[in-house]
Amino acid sequence: MTQYIIRRLIHSVLIVWGCATIVFFLLRAIPGDPIIQLLGPEYTPEAADALRAKLGLDENVVVQYFRWMGNLLRGDLGSSITGAESVRDALLSGLPKTMSIAVVAFIIATAIAIPTGVLAALHRNSFLDFAVSLVAFVGVSMPSFWFGIILILIFSVQLNWLPSLGYASFSEDGAWEWFSHLILPSLAIGAGYAAILMRFVRAGLLEALSSDYIRTARAKGVSERRVVIAHGLRNSLIPVVTVAGIQIALLLSGTVVIETVFSIRGIGRLLVGAIFDKDYPMVQGAILVVAVIFVGANLLVDIAYTLIDPRIKYD
Amino acid sequence: MTDAAVAPAGKLSAGAAPTRSGQRRFWRRLRRERKALVGLILVALLGVVAIFGPALAPYDPEADDFELFAPPSLDHPFGTDSFGRDILSRMAAGTQVSFTVGISVALLSMVVGVTLGLIAGYFGGWVDSLIMRFMDLLWAFPEIILAVGMVAVFGAGIRNIIIAVAVAYLDDFARVVRAEVLRLREEDYTLAARSMGASHGRVMLRHILPNTLAPIIVQATFAVGLGILAESGLTFLGLGVSPSTPTWGLTLNEGRDFIRQAWWISVFPGVAIMVTVLGLNLLGDGLRDTLDVRGVRDAG
After folding, report:
1. Cβ neighbours of B17 (radius 10 Å)
2. Is the ipTM of this complex over 0.90?
3. Which of A32, B122, B246, B248 could form a disulfide with B269 if both were Cys (CB 3.0 to 4.6 A apart)?
4. pLDDT tens for residues A269-278?
């Protein structure tokens, strides 16, 4: 098991390194000089050369790459191309926002998906099953940013229940302020995620409930509640955990767009803004963070299997 | 040696290609799948709008001589936007763009992904490792972030969006096909074809590819929907098509600033995207059940 985790860790590090390398060289292939954009009306060839030298962009790309990698290993992501802030600080201030949205979205989605999936499976082919499935189909089919706008329209504009924009810090503004700012964005990206999870819960539970050990459990008089939860649900969770892990990408992708809708300066908004500004160091840093979160989440999912199903052993 | 191995090479692929009775059985089963039927009808209706969109639209999508922010009425069923343009007409024009993007994304990622999956699965060894490690890299980027990055590198515009989104979804096709090929390359008829001297290309194209069609079709159906969703997301972020092309994502984005006074500008294009993707998802899901395919990922 330890060996397996070490092997997976090495594999994960290699993937992240590959991503970082590809992004580094792709960004250097972008047509258009960021220096021209940066200097704007103050552009002169001399000023451009001076700035290029200051940012280290005058050197050979390979030299730039090794310097960047060296700095990266020391945790230094460089400073934003405008020089105003360090990439690390910007990402560190964005990370809690993005993670808060993703975690709350994950909790909301699971809280919706598991009970509805179980209900749909227990009342298979009933009207309830049909309605839940239809809602799930609609959930995966709508763009999250559009659903976000609809939620703002209903809960902020019409009902005035929840804030429509921005982020509140947990430590400074308190738990309720923090949470109330997260409900709408999290629900917007959690809806599609919930829909996918719910269908896997339903399918997994239906398969588990038709197996022999369930019949045995019922035959020996185990209560129906225990049959469904302890025997059926637990055994149907493995595909659900796989999907939950794979679809973390969906939550992360969702945050990129939803942060723009709700004006939250998380990793996604930083990334999109940096792309518009041709801010290489920030784009590299933001994509690296996303890749680390994503690869890390999948590693955790693999380890989580063994906790849910002791039969799975990694060599 | 099996019977198949002694049969002439030409007949070997007969079982692989869909026969006429097989097609009839397929349609019969598809008709029984109500989900697929609803999806097919939705997609077909929108397809008609996509083809005849400009002719069906009540007004010129660029005409801006109507009242600004007019709410939905009989004259303008979906209202007008901040420039006084008819939203229904703009959406009819946008249907064509959305379908073009969706179908092009699906075709491009299908052709490249299937080729890579076929080669990786068939040859195995270092070829497989090389291709699949590359797919791992693609997989490590959430799709929209990969697409956003590529559009940043190559610039906005429909063509670049199609390429960016298609690359982002390549790995789905490659994985599905590779998994099938790993199974099929050990089948008796494949071994038989090889032992009779058929070239690698022939075995892959005539004997293996036709048997992987079912999961490819299902994946492609979902990919059209994913392409439409991704295009609207990129356009929404301002990285999409030029402002002169009235896509659904663009109209939706234009309405965002006026959501408090004119909800209809953003709401209707979103409904159009949702209904289209819903139709494709229902169709894909129904096809998956009809063709009895497993392991193909949903849109979403």
Report:
1. 11
2. no
3. B248
4. 888 888 887 7
